[in-house]
Please model this.
Amino acid sequence: MLEIKLDRGSPTPPYLQVVNQVRDALRMGWLVPGDRLPSVREVVASSGINPNTVSKAYRELGLLGLIESRQGAGSYVTATLGHADPHAMVKFRVQLEGWVARARAAGLDLEDLKVLAAAVLNESGSARSSVAG
Amino acid sequence: MSAARHRQSTGASGHPRLRDVGWLVWRQHRLLIVTAAVVTLVLCVLQLLVERQLHGLNCPDSDQCAVANGDLFTRAKWLLEAVVATPALVAAFVGAPLVAREIEQGTHIVAWGQDISPRRWLLSKLAVLGAVMAAFAAVLWACARRLAEALTATAPSTVDFSRFSRLPFETLAPLVVSYCVAALALGVAVGAVVRRTLPAVAIAAALFVGSWFAIGQFVRPHYLPAARSLAPVSAAGVDSVEPNPLYLVNNSWADANGHVASYPDGCNQVQDQVAWAACLNSHGVSHRVSIYQPGRREAEFELIEAGLYGLLAAAGTALAVAATRNRVRRRP
Amino acid sequence: MNGGPAVMETSSLCAEDLGKRYRKTWALRECTFDVPSGRVAALVGPNGAGKTTLLDLMAGVLEPDTGSGRVGPAPTGAATPSARVAYLAQDRPLYSTFTAADMLDFGRRFNRRWDQARAFDWLDTFDVPLRRRCDRLSGGQRTQVALALALGASPDLLLLDEPLANLDPIVRVEVARRLLDLVAEQGTTIVLSTHVVAELPGRVDYLVVLVEGRLVLAGDIDDLLAAHAYLEGPRSNDAPGPWVTVRASHSERRSRFLVEHSGDGPPPLTHPTWQATPVGLEDLIMDYLQAANDRPADLAGVDHRG
Model:
């Protein structure tokens, strides 16, 4: 069963974290259509998240067409999220390796690279969540 | 929500059950109740002991006897005074802390945070505690009565235990019971208004003692309109009008028409009875006026006083209930 | 909504211009907010901000000087309440000569609805001795007894004054979990006060922030977070936009503004030159508290009724 973990320090709203974790699980193939998601009470028990938050996340997932909630019977996965194309993964990995090499040659160290990467990912991630939220 | 987990413990209207209030009163105030029982027991034992000693006396009505057994008579009277003092203790230590302590310790949040309103809580506790205290008072009185009757029977007249005085009136009849109930109600009312235990204890005691004293001194002689008698001053002295008046409200002197006349001080010097009477007559004083309560009214008076204290109990209860609200203006 | 029974609108909590004065000082002033049923609301503020006063008013223990409070349709402290309200007061009032078992016995006898199993389970879970007098229990154990008493009454609304204070770290997590489970199971509304902000994110979904007796921020947390953003950029005196600045912090070369942008112009998260980041709950609260500290005269704050 999917284990939901909350990052209390993250600026991402908790309900979005739940949504994203379910979506990531779908993307990774850990959840397939027909799987039962943990009930609201189960999520509360395992992760200590507010039940209204969990309900809101499940509603959101329902609106996205990813899950279906039946009153009294639980919530079930109804769709898949496309896996990333393996060719695209290889292509972008090569590009990333080149970028890292050029940055280091220019004098940036490992920490600089991490900071840059985090900043850009953060921005791109919040742009996405402000659209989805 | 499974209904099996819930239990209907109070009636649909929220009236608490007697057994639950009884449990609460015992559980919360058992030290108080046990203390009251011990006090009652001790006083009773002491009184019965003294009573037996009194009956063992063979005392003619003489000053000698009175002096020789002075200690015994004094002890008897003090024991009776102690009985009359117990209601003040009830007001101070049972009544005053009832509401005051709850609020001062903050436990009123618990007491009134359940499904029972503060007023119902107060009334039921008062009823149970009142019954308990009344029961103790009744026992105490039963012992006091025996002692008081023994005193009346055996004490010489110089030991002042005649109907003139307060002590026999208050101990020969079960007035102590009505005193205790009124004291409880008064004490609770003070506590509910003052809301701090220590001041409430002091005020309740003072207020009860003050009321009891004021009633005894100033109201009691006037429960019924007093009788008035005119006794002529003669050479043989002044006829005593009523052999055993309950109260002597007033003695004064009057002239032949019954108008009040002042006592001529000059006649004090005169020793001789005949000459004294003549002296008075020469100043126009011919009669002695007595305003008094006849002794046969004793039972009526006891009843009236019990009723008066009953009214006080009701008034105290009403005040206590009015002052006990869910919301306070300020948390202590 | 969350599978709980239809307790619903009977246990919403609403305050309208609530105020309380002691002599010349106002402990609480112009307090207005609206917590819907079934929510978990945090009442946050520094010590002395008026949190306990507000809880006392909502519990019907204290009389307000201005304004009014309502639980569902009925006024707070009403003689015939529509919702069962249980209050965990700050000093955990218990009868000192009673044992924990006695306290629960008291609850059983004087409540119409009493969940004996839940109350005793609670004490059992947290290893509270049943036969020891309450004045011989530790602070944490007293809290647990008071909580068991509150929970046994099957409340629709739970008012908790710093419920996790005096509790061990592991116990805190477990208590929080169980309270949230109660919300999930019964739809209970919970209002808890705290001055420890770090434990809140993810647990509470409604926020009321008090500073010196005044409401600084109130509303649904997701709405509040969505309405705020951090703008970071080169040193400047004002935020680069029409938004309300809640708090600004500057270093030698950079400035950061916490802005509130409900409806005034485009949202800053798409700002071209400045870096905009979303705000987490803890940061939001801390910045509002800090801002109120910096400008005590200007405590009107932002009003978001959730």
User: Anything to note?
Assistant: The first helix of chain B runs from residue 18 to 55. Chain B has ten helices and five strands.
